[in-house]
Amino acid sequence: MTTDALRATRAARERLVWLAGLALGVLVLPWHNSVPSGASPFIPSALGLAADGRGWLWPLVLVLPLLVWTGMRDAAGRVFLTLAVGGFVLLVAQGFAVGLRGPSIDWMAGVFPASMQGQTGFGWGGFVSGAALLGLIAHALALRGFCRGDRFAGSAIVFIVALLGLFVFFPILKLALAAFVGPDGELAFAPFLARLFAPEIWRLDCLTGGRRCGVVINSLVLGLLAATICTTLGLALALIVSRTSFRFKQTLRALSILPIITPPFVVGVAIIVLFGRTGLITVWGAELFDIRPTRWVYGLTGILMAQVLAFTPITFLVLLGTVEAVNPTLEEASQTLGAGPVKTFFKITWPLLRPGIAAAFLLAFIESLADFGNPIVLGGGYEVLSTRIFFAVVGARYDLGNAATLAMILLSLTLIAFWLQQRWLGKKSYVTVTGKSDAGLASTLPFGLRGVAWAAVIPFVLFTLGVYAVVLIGGFVHDIGRWDLTPTFAHLRTAFAFEIGAEGLEFYGSAWNSMQTTLLVSAIAAPLTTLVGIMTAWLVARQDFAGKNAFEFGTMLSFAIPGTVVGVSYVAAFNVPPVDITGTAAILVICFVFRNMPVGMRAGLAAFAQIDRSMEEASQTMGAGGAATLRRVVLPLVKPAVFTALVYSFVTAMTAVSAVIFLVSARHNMATAYIMGRVEAGEYALAITYSTVLMIVMIVCIVLIQLLVGARKLGRRREFQGQTTPAE
Amino acid sequence: MTDEIAIEFAEVTKRYGTAVAVDNISFSIAKGEMVTFLGPSGCGKTTSLRLIAGLELPTTGVVRIAGRDVSQRAASERNVGMVFQSYALFPHMNVLENVAYGPVIRGEAKATARARAHEILEQIGLAGLSARLPSELSGGQQQRVAVARAIVQQPDVLLFDEPLSNVDAKLRRKVRGEIRDLQKRFGLTAVYVTHDQEEALAVSDRIVVMQAGRIAQIGSPRDLYERPASPFVADFIGDANLISGQVSGGRFRAADLDLPMQGNEGAAQISLRPERIALSPGSGSPSGKVLSCTYLGSRWEYEIETGFAELLASRPMTEPPIAPGTDVSLTIPDNAPIRVA
Fold first, then answer.
1. Which of A20, A180, A437, A605 has the fewest CB atoms within 10 Å, measured from its CB?
2. Topology adopted by domain B5-232
3. Closest Cα partner for A331 from A448, A446, A449?
4. pLDDT on residue B3
């Protein structure tokens, strides 16, 4: 077949698929997730409902024949594109125009009396039609030269933008609106201002003694302290690893992933077991030194301890990168010019490290602000934004308006930090390592500084060892809290008992339910996250299209939104039509996909930077469209990035708590939520046991993923060495 | 070569934001012709090539391949073959899989595709390497695989993006000869991008010299060398001495230089090739003084100070060298100077 004919048939076939999808969505599939009250259509599709008096659906139904007609004549024309865009706008508009309890626009009731009965959220019909219309928009755009005419890339962009819009920006927008909603459901400034300037948010009483400070002040104090300590420790560790003759560099690097696979709460619980009022060290201190046991660990101190443990590895990795990026020849140059090691460190090395230090500090600050698990376990009376938001939605005094206001404050703080971080990294990155090989060895740390670094690191290491010892042992002894170290599997049995009886395998343990949901949701979310992340990276790295900068910024932004804010924004957005999906397992998956997607994207971007772009262009000139190129050329070459993204998204889904805690339901409970319940009930041993099991499961899964993705990579290792990239 | 038009650009412009990469250019390439885009970096030659491939789409204007308007058509929907600067062989596929990629993608049965790939590899003399990975080939072999991969589907046009820049300097002459042979043997229409003027002169039927996104001149290699249309072309193709002066009464005059010259009266600029200037020690008109004399193996190269310009002259090894500081008289044949402005 000639290229021309092939091209024409392929395009026509794709168009046919989208149009068929639209026909299915509009004519056959149920438009809503349940038939709205008062409606009795012959078929619950948009067509049926429109014929049943719900006339606001007619324009949407009529777009279909118009699209078919123009599509046959001139699919590259402006009319076809306008119709597709118009159809999509109509679909969204009708979804919002009529809510569950009636029309949200007054004149609708007059024109369409049936709208008074309200409508339920989108069902399969609505979603399939929406997807088909987006597909047709992308198709029409590509025929008009969008994305250099590549229909696959064009659709990918349109769909990812639509998904980001629906699952990242729409919820945030809804949340922002919710902050302005008054007690009677009206939009107004007054209630927002009242909430925004409430004394329990901003007061500074703790400085003058007496009462507690406001929740924002608490969060900021915690964030700044945690960031300072984590950065200091991270820097000390990085300097010891790269600038002394320390031998366990690889071990330390490997161990730094521990916090990532550590479920939330377990560190908090271990700290309570060690330092709580009846904690091991507390009791020991009381016996030896006669220190009166108190609840000192609950509050700022305890949260700080847990956060330092959790976030120091992150700052360590960032700073290790920075320290290793300092070109040794610069230090050697300084020394040949007559500066001693100490002077060289402070005049040359330190200024080069500063941007990295700033970045690590802001990263730790953002993490601390977003942290939910540690404050809720160890906070005591010390409330921070994330916990206050949680209690405003989940607690007895449900107040979405208040939660929304607090969430907006938290979001603003995070975004400011994120913006500062981007600025620091963007303008002041002194990466002094180039592609050229540098002679020279990194100078070692001056003697005095080495002492300071070790002095900071040793207590931290001991503390970490203690905490993980408690975690490792705690689940399998009778009662670690009272130092009763009799080995037992009682806790494990409570959680994961099963029996192979007459009716086959039966699970009795109380944790099975949440474990199954967690594994299932994570196993579905991980590949989807990877797919969306790598696809987005591919679009950003390889495609040129209008609005690309905004697109890239938007995806990165979604990473900066704290989990608590995401959770509460999903509650605000997806509890009501047109997209009401709370209480389903789908919302858990969606939440993970869009929260973790930026990590896949970053891994992908790093991988694409290493791959000669002309290989993809070669594939295109040989007749492969975007999809075939991606599958046959790109994916085999970015396997390591795929692995990273898969593992990270799987592990994060297994251990995430801040966002899902708002989204779990009795039917779909997650492991972390279950553990939180156990912690609240004081069943520490059970919580620790479950956490240990989770960590083991995760390690097993990582190994499995490695085998799945990595086995193929090993067989082709040689090719990566001989990559055909230009010499210059 | 027939007169049938294989590629046509009609008022094609490509902008990136406000930057104009290709500025309203028009030309056509006949079927079976080998045309080179030549120019300094940033002149728009690679963008023009990518516009033919479909890797860029024009902002305005029309691109036609084999008579069809392909302006808004993706690369995958045109029938072009392209040899990339880096060869862009797929490192995870062996030679045969690389060459069979195109036919497989275009829907041929795997066996047919492989047979076709094998046939081409045989014609190019690479049949023995089918099972090798690209990383196991020498640079020259990789280059040939890239060519085989590009021609296996009998493309309407074969595109080369600086294909020799990764080839050893010594091998270049051989490889460019192979490319030219192949193009003639298969009767392919080919477009070739390079910044190396010698390469362009050696392989092309015609050369398109580009400057700042526009076409400076189109012509055969000999046309361009012997009849450059502008100072830029004269200077870019080979070495040229550009001399400004006045034309009046059928003579071009600048200081003591006085040459016959037809055309418009008034200010003018001529181009004088270094090898067309003969030197002899002593005084005369026009006169000059040797500033430097450099041994270049195949010739002597002189810098000469004169009343009208500092000239570059090149003399064969067979002449005795003239020491710096010597006064010389210059002899310039009447047909040597080319008026360029």
1. A437
2. Rossmann fold (3.40.50)
3. A446
4. 66
